[in-house]
Write a structure and sequence with these properties.
Low-confidence stretches: none
Helix content: 25-40%
Strand content: 15-25%
Shape: globular
Structural class: alpha/beta
């Protein structure tokens, strides 16, 4: 029987940042036990980060699952700095398409990122507004999205140098804003979940 997957990138870059990620993994293990899902922790880089940042490498998700012989139904690709509530319901049952959560963090950062990447990479086109910008730390996908992930990978390889220079110049994100653009340009049907499924900037919200 196919299972839903929780896929967590957990790469130790030797800078001490990943130490606290164990709390995230333990919380998601409990979630998977409760909802009959499988947790997969990705720990090995595909290419050096100088060629492609970790956030971009995660779009090799389907390749990694299939190369490991893992069958699946839906997959949550979630950041390792998240901690899921012990009573979180099974959100897999609430999503049929591409599941995301609107970004509820700094709108100054979001708008600066949107404006910067749109000018440098997308001819100043803004096919969506700031209120519908989603956070890439929580994405639910399925096999119907394999072609889109292939498109994302090809887009990166084709525009790698421009993307890398834009990231350094804008200093407001790596893949997130670009993925917001690419989903719109490819007319991906986004299924928005309520913000409680990916609460952000809790410290600034007190």
């Amino acid at each position: 029987m196919k299972k839903n997957i929780v896929f967590i990138p957990y790469i130790d870059m030797g800078d001490g940042r990943s130490g606290s990620y164990t709390y995230s993994i333990k919380s998601w293990e409990k979630f998977c036990e409760r909802h009959n899902a499988e947790i997969i922790v990705w720990q090995d880089l595909i290419v050096p980060v100088e060629e492609m940042k970790i956030t971009w490498q995660r779009y090799y998700l389907f390749d990694m699952l299939e190369n490991s012989g893992i069958d699946y139904d839906k997959v949550l690709m979630v950041d390792a700095d998240t901690i899921v509530h012990p009573e979180c319901p099974n959100f897999f049952d609430k999503v049929d398409g591409y599941g995301v959560v609107r970004n509820n963090g700094s709108f100054e950062w979001t708008r600066r990122s949107m404006d910067g990447f749109s000018k440098l990479l997308f001819d100043s086109k803004l096919p969506f507004n700031v209120w519908d910008y989603f956070n890439c730390g929580f994405q639910i996908v399925n096999k119907n999205h394999k072609d889109f992930f292939e498109y994302v990978k090809t887009y990166y390889e084709t525009n790698r140098l421009n993307i890398q220079s834009s990231i350094e110049r804008i200093k407001a994100g790596t893949d997130q804003t670009l993925l917001n653009f690419l989903t719109r340009l490819q007319k991906i049907d986004l299924n928005y979940l309520p913000i409680e499924y990916n609460l952000q900037d809790l410290y600034s919200k007190q």
